[in-house]
Amino acid sequence: MSSEASSVKQPSLLPLMAVCKQWRLIIGSMFYKSALLAYDSKKLYVYKHESLIKLEDIIDTGSQHHLKKIQVYISPMDFRSPETSTAVLQAVLDKVGPLCRVREITLFFAPYSSLYRFQRFNQTDDEVDIDALSATLEEYARLFHELLPNKKIVNAYKSQEHRSPARFAATYKRMSDFATELVGTQVCHFSSEGINLTKPLVDNLKGTQMRRISIARHKGTQQHIELIRRNAQTLEVIHIKNVTTHALVKMTYRGAKQGTMVYPRLRELYIASCSGYRSRSYNEPTCDPFPALRVLDCQGHFPFASPVVLDQGRSHISVLRIDADRQLLEILESGGVLEDGSFKHLSLLSLGWRHKVAAPRDDHANQIFIKALNMAPFA
Question: pTM of the entire structure?
Fold first, then answer.
């Protein structure tokens, strides 16, 4: 992902803003709904086809009441100067006060900004004043929370893959802690991509009434799964990508003594690019872990060796998308899950075949696959 565009077309809504005053009032709520907060944001930034205007420019037009989302571009190189790194936040607070209508924050963490490159940053950690850096980051976080007191949706992304030079180890450790400080503790929806979740962040988000979690390109599976487990009672939607079978099993099963981890409110579960092997030795939930589940979408390897998830899900799953393999079909057949019309409320069934596994060639495997297609009442 490229965070800065050197030549960006004007947003398509811009010409409509110039038609008349009435059109400007109508279009303004859409045109000014998102803003960019970045130290070196001299141009429009683009992310996922969305053009972003600097926060300061929106405030200059008096249109800050339309703001619903703020996207923040953060680089450790931007915090070398205590005076300039917090200047934008302080200026906005002085001019308009807290932006209470903003509910969604997207944090982009980058190894460097567009103005500073590693080859231009010749200081080593021995030469960087970590205490001064920490003081600057703490002040930035304080102003950040004061400016955005009602954020409920937080998305955190690493803008590009990189390896931190060893000489910046302490600096990047402090930036990791900084990410935890910015996320806060009052989040209902949290998504991350390529971010290494830390134990302090997981602790902060414990018991926050979190309803949605989305995790991709995980780093440090243990903390990601712990974050999900700690919010099991309130979660309604989970998106999880690039995790191991063992990690997903730990999400639903706590062992013989503690039994199944139940998610009583979970309505939608999306799993993609799961890796590993199924093992009945540690995957034996004793009851339905997702009693309210309506949508189960698993692309690639299906992680659960026990048929309980689908067996119990027959009474409440309405949308089922899974990629099968021979072992999975045999597990489901032996558990009686593949009976005709067994999923009484199923409105959509999509049954594929794992792309890394050869399609069945023998008659028995093909018969099981055809049988599985009849699970829906409309088959």
Answer: 0.81
